[in-house]
């Protein structure tokens, strides 16, 4: 507390990100980073543009990125124009602007009780009222629960930290039954097995889809996220962005992003490799007695009926493996384990074998 703080600062409960320990030889399975590096073409692009032109400000609109993204989705079958794309410094920033520009309404917004824990933090920052909608007993979003009046709806799909996917028809059900509110689908993990709601943006003017380069494109360090939706929604976001930071996307991030969307082969190969490891790890964990929620993401969410989750996380840590543990109601017996390389997954299995076998 300080007498110099603006009064709202006293009310904030900031988000706590998964730790980034400065220890080497650690198997880091706690923040859903991609275990494979970015495409070599991305690294070449960054090197090629690391020159004296960095003295200049970047394009304030990052139009090169918007054009690359619109061309990418158009080629995949959904025509997306430049004015349907918003870009930000990580999807966390896109989310922040979304809360401020679109989700602060007279009625409370809705989101699942178990979902991305940054949402309530933004509600605190922007003073957005919200109502949590419980997941079902099997940790699923039930679209029928979203048939009630609201000021907007947001959920991750696949959900975080459960990894569960909501089918596209169910997303569409939520859109149809909420035509008067904005429905934001946070698709940070969609490339690991889901069907994206981007295919619906030209049908529903209340839909905003947010994606990131941090997970499936292995560029968490670049901080690039984007939103796709009706031009009026995008304009709302642009108005907030241009009242906040004219140049959120630096020049190297622009070049890296464009190069990433140009290398589809690398993207598809690395995503497929992670999906294979996830499915194998899920089987192995199940064989150890874990209850594993079916995952469509690059992590699994699992609990062991006979072992305390926090104790397991600490025992793994003693073996230099870090996973994410949430000390929160309903999920304090689960571990969220990011999918590493094949070797990292096997090291995890070996460590669990030691921990779970009575000596
Ligand atoms: C990782 C994640 C984000 C944030 O991604 P950045 O683009 O790195 O800011 C947003 N939403 C969900 C659900 C995530 O898991």
UniProtKB/TrEMBL annotation:
The keyword Iron does not apply. InterPro entries: Aminotrans_II_pyridoxalP_BS, Aminotransferase_I/II_large, HisP_aminotrans, HistidinolP_aminotransfase, PyrdxlP-dep_Trfase, PyrdxlP-dep_Trfase_major, PyrdxlP-dep_Trfase_small. It holds the Pfam family Aminotran_1_2. Its EC number is 2.6.1.9. Keywords: Amino-acid biosynthesis, Aminotransferase, Histidine biosynthesis, Pyridoxal phosphate, Transferase. Residues 25-352 form the Aminotransferase class I/classII large domain. Its cofactor is pyridoxal 5'-phosphate. It catalyses: L-histidinol phosphate + 2-oxoglutarate = 3-(imidazol-4-yl)-2-oxopropyl phosphate + L-glutamate. Pathway: Amino-acid biosynthesis; L-histidine biosynthesis; L-histidine from 5-phospho-alpha-D-ribose 1-diphosphate: step 7/9. It comes from the Bacteria. The modification N6-(pyridoxal phosphate)lysine is found at residue 215. It is an enzyme of class 2 (transferase). Transmembrane segments: none annotated. Homodimer. HAMAP family: HisC_aminotrans_2. Belongs to the class-II pyridoxal-phosphate-dependent aminotransferase family. Histidinol-phosphate aminotransferase subfamily. This is Histidinol-phosphate aminotransferase. The gene is hisC_2.
């Amino acid at each position: 507390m300080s007498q110099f703080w603006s009064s709202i600062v006293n009310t904030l409960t900031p988000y706590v990100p998964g730790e980034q320990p400065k220890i080497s030889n650690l198997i880091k399975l706690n923040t859903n980073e991609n275990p494979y590096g970015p495409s070599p073409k991305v690294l070449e692009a960054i090197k090629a543009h690391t020159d004296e032109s960095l003295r200049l400000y970047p394009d304030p609109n990052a139009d090169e990125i918007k054009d690359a993204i619109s061309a990418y989705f158009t080629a995949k079958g959904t025509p997306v124009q430049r004015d349907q794309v918003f870009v930000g410094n990580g999807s966390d920033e896109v989310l922040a602007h979304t809360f401020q520009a679109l989700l602060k309404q007279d009625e409370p917004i809705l989101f699942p009780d178990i979902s991305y824990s940054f949402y309530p933090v933004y509600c605190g920052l922007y003073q957005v009222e919200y109502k949590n909608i419980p997941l079902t007993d099997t940790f699923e979003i039930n679209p029928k629960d979203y048939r009630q009046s609201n000021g907007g709806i947001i959920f991750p799909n696949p959900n975080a930290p459960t990894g569960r996917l909501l089918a596209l028809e169910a997303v569409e059900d939520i859109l149809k039954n909420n035509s008067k509110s904005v429905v934001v689908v946070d698709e940070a993990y969609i490339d690991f097995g889901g069907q994206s709601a981007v295919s619906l943006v030209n049908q529903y003017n209340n839909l905003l889809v947010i994606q990131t380069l941090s997970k499936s494109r292995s560029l968490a360090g670049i901080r690039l996220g984007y939103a796709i939706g009706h031009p009026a929604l995008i304009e709302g976001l642009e108005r907030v962005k241009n009242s906040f930071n004219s140049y959120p996307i630096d020049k190297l991030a622009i070049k890296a992003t464009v190069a990433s969307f140009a290398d589809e082969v690398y993207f598809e190969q690395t995503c497929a490799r992670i999906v294979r490891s996830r499915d194998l790890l899920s089987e192995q964990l199940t064989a150890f007695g874990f209850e594993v929620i079916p995952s469509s993401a690059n992590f699994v969410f699992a609990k062991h009926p006979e072992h305390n989750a926090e104790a397991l996380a600490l025992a793994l840590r003693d073996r230099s493996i870090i996973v994410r543990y949430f000390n929160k109601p309903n999920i304090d017996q689960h571990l969220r384990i990011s999918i590493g390389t094949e070797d990292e997954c096997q090291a995890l299995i070996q460590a669990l074998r030691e921990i779970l076998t009575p000596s």
